[in-house]
Amino acid sequence: MCSSVDEQVFGVKELAASRYPGHVLLRFRHRTLPPQGRPHLMGIVNVTPDSFYDGGATATTDLAVARALAVVSEGATVIDVGGMTARPGVELSAADEMARVLPVLEGIRAAGCEAVVSVDTYRAGVAAAALDAGADMINDHTGLTDGDLAAAVAEHGGGLVVTHLGLAPKQVQAGRYDIDPAEIGSFLSQRAELAIDAGIARSALVVDPGLGFGKSTATDLATLRALPDLLRLGYPLLLACSHKEVTAEPLGLPESNIEGTAAVVAVAAYQGVHLLRVHDLPFMARVATMAALLRSGDAP
C-alpha cells in the first residue's frame, strides 16, 4: 500500500498556501494535490518494451505496479504511467496502448494506493478509459493534437497536462529546431484556454514547456532561463527534465548521466516550479527538497 500525498513527510514547510483556494494546487474528481514546500515529483512508470530510459524494465503489469508503488515510497506524489514511447516511429494501436495501461491502473488502485495517477497519452479514447480505470489526470505531451481529447477529459472529470510539441506525434524529424520561449508560452496559454472551453476546470490544468521533443539544446536552455515567465502564465508548471539532451549535451556526457538532470531539478525547484517529472528517485527528491529549502529560507 502507498500513502496519499497528505500522509507523506517532505522535510520542508508548506509555502504560499494562501495563493491557492482551499490550499489546493490541483483538484481532480477524487483527489487533490496541495501546495507544498518543494515541487511535487512525478515518478515515471513506462509499460513499454522500448523505453529509452530503462529498455523495458517495467514492461509487464506486475513489474509496472510494483514500480508505481515504489516511486511513491521514494518521494513521488504523482505516478505517471505510459503505454507508448514518445520517440518517433511507428504508432501503437489504441487497443494495444489500453491493454498495457489499464491493468496497471487497476493494479495500483487494487493495492490501496491513493496517490495521484496520470497517464501519458494523447488519444481521447485511451484517456477516457484510463480515467474510468482510476487515473486522475492525462499527461498529453502533444498539446491537444487530438481535437477530442479535452472534451473526453472534461467528461470524465480528469485533469490535464498541456505540453508544447512543435511536431506531429511520432513524427520522424529531419533535425532539431529553435523556437523562442515566448512562443512556447503563448502556445501553452492558447491550448489551456481551449481546454477550459472544453469544460476542464482551471484548477485541474497544468502546463509543460516540453523540453526536448526535437528542440535544440539552445532552445531548451533558453526555456529554462525563462521559467519565471512561464510561471507567470497562471497555471501550475510541470517540467519533464529527466535525462534529456539539454542535461547531457552541454556536459559532453550521455543522456544517462545524473549530474545534468540534478542541476536542472535544483534550478527548477529554486525557481518555484510546481511539478517535476523525474527518474532517479529518491535522489532527485533530495535535490528538489534542498533547493526549495534554500529558496524558502525556512528551517528544515
Describe this structure as you would to a colleague:
By secondary structure, this protein is of the alpha/beta class. It has nine helices and ten strands. The chain has an eight-stranded parallel β-sheet. Strand 9, helix 8 and strand 10 form a beta-alpha-beta unit. Helix 3 packs parallel to helix 4. The protein is globular. About 6% of the residues have low confidence.
- The average pLDDT score comes to 88
Q: Which overall shape is indicated by the principal axes computed on the Cα atoms?
A: globular
Order of helices and strands: EEEHEHEHEHEHEHHEHEH
Assign the CATH topology.
TIM Barrel
Low-confidence stretches: 4-22
List how many beta strands DSSP finds. Answer: 10
- Structural class estimated from helices and strands: alpha/beta
In DSSP terms (H or I, runs of 4 or more residues), the helix count works out at 9
The largest β sheet comes out as: 8 strands, parallel
Total of domains: 1
Widest β-sheet, arrangement of strands: 8-7-6-5-4-3-10-9
Alpha-carbon Rg, integer: 18 Å
The oligomeric status of these chains comes to single chain
Highest CATH level, the class: Alpha Beta
